[in-house]
Each structure stands twice: as C-alpha cells, then as structure tokens.
Amino acid sequence: YLSLNLQIDQFIDGERLAKKLLSKLTKLKVFH
What we know:
This protein is mainly α. The N and C termini lie far apart (47 Å).
C-alpha cells in the first residue's frame, strides 16, 4: 500500500515536471 502511494506521488511529480518542460518549450518556440 505504501509503495503504491509512493509510485502515485512519483507519477504526479513526473507529470508536473513534464508540464513545466512543455511550457518552457512552448515559450521558447513562441520567442523564436
């Protein structure tokens, strides 16, 4: 049960990182 929660937390963190990277990439594309 604990390991499942950890996996979910890591997945959510990964989603946040992916969204941050995507927003940075889109901003770079807009500037270029």
